């Protein structure tokens, strides 16, 4: 709605987990490097954890793109072990013509992973919202998948993504094999400003749409969390547009924060 008014090619703060939306920032770049090294050279599972809205899914997808491997992004991991094996076998090799037994699904998954490794690639499994896994057998299934090893290292690279609760839930068999454990916290104030300006630049902004004071207010109102920054910045630009203002100021941010808080309570 406000894009034309501000000369933007598209909404700069639309909710997205596309790697194209990534803004290079020190804390995020450091996490990517650590995870990349752990999965590429450590030959073991890695964990990315942090508060909701900190951008974990975006980092996971950027990592997959950076590694240049085929990746399966599992977003509903709370499945029994046998169902998880069948799902992964279908994701990597296509649907079954009939309901498979666990042995059949396991054999297909093993063969698919071995075929991928023979071409020089180790497929990546991203288990998002992994803190939702309550069944220890599901974690055990993931651990056993790492025993598939055609040439030495595991055929499957595994990234577990979740909140801090995930660290407490990991069974010793998986925790002992971790090669990277990354906490993705909120942005610093300078990172919040750089993030907002980076998203605006990617959308084609040629003039400042937030005053410096507004950027600082955004960081405080969003607690430095990217998801909240997106919502508040988007709402602030809409309010400024409705008022005919050339840019958002601290007052605009305060109004947006109140409306965002009311929407959150209503939800």
CATH class of the largest domain: Alpha Beta
Order of helices and strands: HHEHEHHEHEHHEHHHH
User: How many distinct helices?
Assistant: 12
Strands across the major sheet, in which order? 2-3-4-1-5
What does this structure look like?
By secondary structure, the protein is of the alpha/beta class. It has two domains: 3-8 and 187-266, Helicase, Ruva Protein, domain 3; 26-183, P-loop containing nucleotide triphosphate hydrolases (Rossmann fold, 3-Layer(aba) Sandwich). It contains twelve helices and five strands. It has helices at 3-6, 26-41, 56-67, 81-93, 102-118, 136-145, 165-169, 172-175, 189-202, 212-222, 226-242, 250-266, and strands at 46-49, 71-74, 124-127, 157-162, 180-183. Strands 2-3-4-1-5 form a five-stranded parallel beta sheet, with helices on both faces. α10 (212-222) crosses α11 (226-242). The longest helix is centred in the middle third of the chain and has 17 residues, at 102-118. The chain is elongated. The mean pLDDT is 92.
Secondary-structure blueprint:
Blueprint lengths: L2 H4 L19 H16 L4 E4 L6 H12 L3 E4 L6 H13 L8 H17 L5 E4 L8 H10 L11 E6 L2 H5 L2 H4 L4 E4 L5 H14 L9 H11 L3 H17 L7 H17 L1
Parallel strand pairs: 1-4, 1-5, 2-3, 3-4
Outline of this structure?
The chain is 52% helix and 8% strand. By secondary structure, it is of the alpha/beta class.
């Amino acid at each position: 709605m406000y894009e034309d008014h501000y000369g933007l090619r598209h909404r700069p703060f639309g909710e997205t987990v596309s790697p194209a939306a990534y803004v290079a920032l020190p804390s995020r770049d450091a996490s990517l490097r650590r995870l990349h090294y752990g999965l590429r050279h450590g030959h073991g599972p890695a964990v990315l954890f942090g508060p909701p809205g900190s951008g974990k899914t975006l980092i996971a997808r950027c990592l997959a793109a950076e590694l240049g491997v085929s990746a399966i992004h599992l977003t509903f991991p709370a499945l029994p072990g046998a169902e998880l094996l069948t799902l992964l076998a279908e994701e990597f090799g296509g649907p079954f013509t009939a309901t498979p037994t666990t042995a059949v699904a396991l054999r297909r998954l093993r063969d698919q992973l071995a075929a991928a490794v023979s071409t020089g690639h180790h497929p990546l499994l991203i288990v998002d919202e992994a803190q939702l896994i309550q069944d220890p057998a599901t974690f055990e299934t993931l651990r056993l998948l790492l025993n598939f090893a055609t040439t030495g290292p595991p055929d499957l690279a595994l990234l577990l993504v979740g909140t801090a609760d995930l660290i407490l839930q990991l069974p010793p068999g998986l925790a002992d094999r971790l090669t990277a454990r990354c906490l993705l916290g909120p942005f610093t104030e300078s990172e919040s400003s750089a993030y907002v300006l980076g998203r605006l630049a990617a959308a084609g902004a040629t003039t400042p749409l937030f005053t410096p004071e507004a950027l600082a207010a955004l960081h405080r109102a969003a607690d430095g969390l990217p998801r909240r920054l997106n919502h508040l910045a988007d709402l602030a630009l809409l309010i400024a547009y409705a008022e005919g203002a050339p840019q958002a100021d601290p007052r605009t941010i305060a109004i947006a924060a109140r409306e965002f808080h009311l929407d959150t309570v209503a939800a």
